[in-house]
Write a structure and sequence with these properties.
Low-confidence stretches: none
Helix content: 55-70%
Mean pLDDT: 85
Structural class: mainly alpha
Shape: globular
Radius of gyration: 14 Å
Strand content: under 5%
Distance between the termini: 21 Å
Number of strands: 0
Number of domains: 1
């Protein structure tokens, strides 16, 4: 995701890590992604690149815009449900930064702070 804001690049890195964890755990892949997960990652990258919020993008859970098609949204939810709890062990820094982003989103929504 060259040329994008660091926040979006980190978001892509997080979703890619989650898809890798999911693919390995649920599809048994080693050293890469299966075709279905490769398509999902490419789709997630396209959606991030087209995000109307760009650097101010909230986490998906806090986003007012549902940019994923319903079928892809269900697939990414399954990935997040499986990989989310495992992120703390496999990618602790990305997991903590994602949690901080979620807290920042909640604070901004409540009008507590503008931490962008």
């Amino acid at each position: 995701m060259a040329g994008q804001h660091p926040r979006l690049a980190r978001e892509y890195e997080t979703v890619a890590a989650m898809i890798r964890i999911y693919c390995r755990g649920c599809h048994g892949t080693r050293g890469g992604l299966c075709d279905a997960c490769r398509v999902l990652l490419a789709y997630a990258g396209e959606r991030l690149a087209a995000c109307p919020f760009q650097s101010g993008k909230p986490t998906c859970a806090g986003c007012p815009v549902h940019c994923y098609r319903p079928a892809m949204r269900e697939r990414i939810r399954a990935v997040m449900r499986y990989a989310g709890p495992r992120m703390l062990w496999r990618h602790p820094v990305l997991a903590l930064l994602h949690l901080v982003d979620g807290l920042r989103d909640a604070a901004v929504r409540r009008g507590i702070a503008d931490l962008s």
